[in-house]
Amino acid sequence: MPGKLLPPAIKAKVSVDSAIPILPVAVAAVNGYPAAIAPAVTLISSAVTDIGFIQTQLMIKVPPPIAPPARFGVNTTGAILTQLTTILTAITAASTAAPLLPEPTATTAFTTANTTIGTTLPLVSTAITVGLIVPQQI
Fold first, then answer.
1. Long-range pairs for 14-21 at CB < 8 Å and ≥24 separation?
2. What is the rounded CA–CA span in Å between residue 98 and residue 41?
3. 84 to 4, 31, 63, 100, 107: CA distances (angstroms)
4. In angstroms, rounded to a whole number, what is the distance separating the alpha carbons of residues 71 and 66?
5. What is the CA radius of gyration of the chain?
6. Of 11, 40, 41, which Cα lies nearest the Cα of 132?
């Protein structure tokens, strides 16, 4: 029997996976990056809401579950929320730098931020699958 928190976990994964292909398009938009990345911000914010909901449901339990020995716990959702926050912070940095391109400092900030986003998004997707979806399907 699937876990009660499976639907928001799946919804969060779909949101994160849908944000992944937006990044290269936004990067290619250069100075138009802030507008081009906006749909990804909405999707990632939705994932934050869904993972936050799971976190809240876990916090109701006293004491809150920790994995292991639990299949997943507040440590799992906390780590995912931290990664999502890292992505949103990097998007803010890139959006701030984009209008200033091709200025060298802005170029460095833009590239660094987008490297962080491009690396972290797939990791979050995997973390949601391995940490929240699979354990609820057992």
1. 15/43, 15/44, 15/46, 15/47, 15/50, 16/43, 16/44, 16/47, 16/84, 16/121, 16/124, 16/125, 16/128, 17/125, 18/43, 19/43, 19/44, 19/47, 19/121, 20/121, 20/122, 20/125
2. 16
3. 22, 24, 25, 25, 23
4. 8
5. 17
6. 11
pTM listed for this prediction: 0.93
pLDDT score at 68: 84
Q: What does DSSP assign to residue 59?
A: H
- Residue 54 corresponds to which amino acid? I
Name residue 20's amino acid: I
Give the separation between CA 27 and CA 30, rounded to whole angstroms. 5
pLDDT reading at 95 higher than 80: yes
Structure tokens of 85?
């926050």
Residue 91 has pLDDT above 90, yes or no: yes
Each residue's pLDDT tens digit, 24-71: 999 999 999 999 999 999 999 999 999 999 999 999 988 888 888 888
Q: How many CA atoms lie within 13 A of 118 on its CB side?
A: 12
